[in-house]
Amino acid sequence: MKRLIALSLLALAACKEDVAEIPTPIDMTDEALGYYCQMYVAEHAGPKAQIFLKGRAAPLWFSQVSDARAYVLDPAREADITAIYVSDLGAAESWAIMGEGNWIAADDAVFLIEGSQMGGMGTPEALPYSSAEAANASGYGGRIMNWQEIPEIYVRPEMTAMSAMDHGEHN
């Protein structure tokens, strides 16, 4: 019985350590550089993302949410992901002004894809909202889905096309 209690306490301690390791979002500053473009994230309109990697205190910044999803799907990424945060468009002042501390966990957001609004880099974007009601009220149209449902072909069309060519699916 003592052994069972000791194992239970160890398991509980491990769970608490995992919870404690989840970083909180960081307010975006003018110095935040986009991971892919190496341009200042704040200079681009539209929603942003930040991804925390295991063993790193500072997040990777993304000028578009779609870029962050592409990073997650990239098998060559640097390390395990500990947290992903995206701008909440429903709480933003405007498309141009997302707000420095306007972050929600990507897994808690809903996303509009294939709508009328392009991203800050002029490419298709996954528009994040804290609720389906806010997404529907946006007027951008498109399909609503969760973070895990955003298809690779939407955020990495060139990689999906290359994969099809590698498998003999030529047009």
Strand line-up across the major sheet: 2-1-3-4
Largest sheet: 4 strands, antiparallel
Quantity of strands, as a count: 7
Structural class, from helix and strand content?
A: alpha+beta
Task: Explain the overall architecture.
The structure is a single chain. The protein is of the alpha+beta class. The chain is built from five helices and seven strands. Strands 2-1-3-4 form a four-stranded antiparallel β-sheet. Strands 6-5-7 form a three-stranded antiparallel β-sheet. The longest helix has 19 residues, at 2-20. It is globular, with a radius of gyration of 18 Å.
What are the salient characteristics of this protein?
single chain, 171 residues, alpha+beta, four-stranded antiparallel beta sheet, 5 helices, 28% helix, globular
Architecture blueprint of SSEs:
Blueprint: H1 2-20, E1 49-53, E2 60-62, H2 65-73, E3 81-87, E4 103-105, E5 110-113, E6 127-129, H3 132-137, E7 143-145, H4 152-155, H5 157-166
Antiparallel strand pairs: 1-2, 1-3, 3-4, 5-6, 5-7
Gist?
It is built from five helices and seven strands, in the order αββαββββαβαα. It has helices at 2-20, 65-73, 132-137, 152-155, 157-166; strands at 49-53, 60-62, 81-87, 103-105, 110-113, 127-129, 143-145.
